[in-house]
């Protein structure tokens, strides 16, 4: 669907599974069990949501992924949509919708509420009717589900309350009338999300900063990818002692920052920048030390 034809707040709409969406699920490295739990929740909702809706305490088809920036929440959200679509392909295709939460705030009193109501009661049900399964990704959901108990008078708390009320009513309506629709949401600031929204979540998944084991795995994968272009660097990817030392120096980093370490190492020396096949363990260790000193310098400033 052309971008200029999309309803307000909808960034994109795709039919899954699609080869264009392969990659994120397999490539992202997170603590053991994270992907399995997320995918299991998605499949349960998408495959059995209609039957489960008959039970007391109906599922809301809502997943909240919370954690620091750069831990892979958005990638996980996009990846689980494709992974679930592939698993459910024998029962039909999946509609994948990305929502822009920043498209709704308005200076006009009540307009945010009306826009969110249209999204939840008109747009999403209409798109969900196209195929048997639907996944809706909402990044930075705290922009929509604002914690009403902490709303500032400077930001028009009346409109904030109304917009959050509209979102909650919409989640309830979709769960009741269109069970099987899965909302996958992400946040860097779970404390900013309304308590009633969190209480509706079937799964609140905390995506933490990677531990040393996960950091080592990310570095190994990154170096193996580099070795696909310059095979000479493959021994670095298989050097367990090196990976362990790098992981210890990268403690507290997010996954995105860890992946960029290899790029930083390639830029340590001009000859390596010209020929990445010359990359050494010393370059990687030096890059880790330089990058590790960066935040400390920023904080001191």
Automatic annotation (TrEMBL):
SUPFAM superfamilies: P-loop containing nucleoside triphosphate hydrolases. InterPro entries: AAA+_ATPase (IPR003593), ATPase_AAA_core (IPR003959), P-loop_NTPase (IPR027417), Pch2-like (IPR044539). Pfam families: AAA. GO terms for molecular function: ATP binding. The keyword Cell membrane does not apply. Keywords: ATP-binding, Nucleotide-binding. Residues 59-211 form the AAA+ ATPase domain. This is ATP-binding protein.
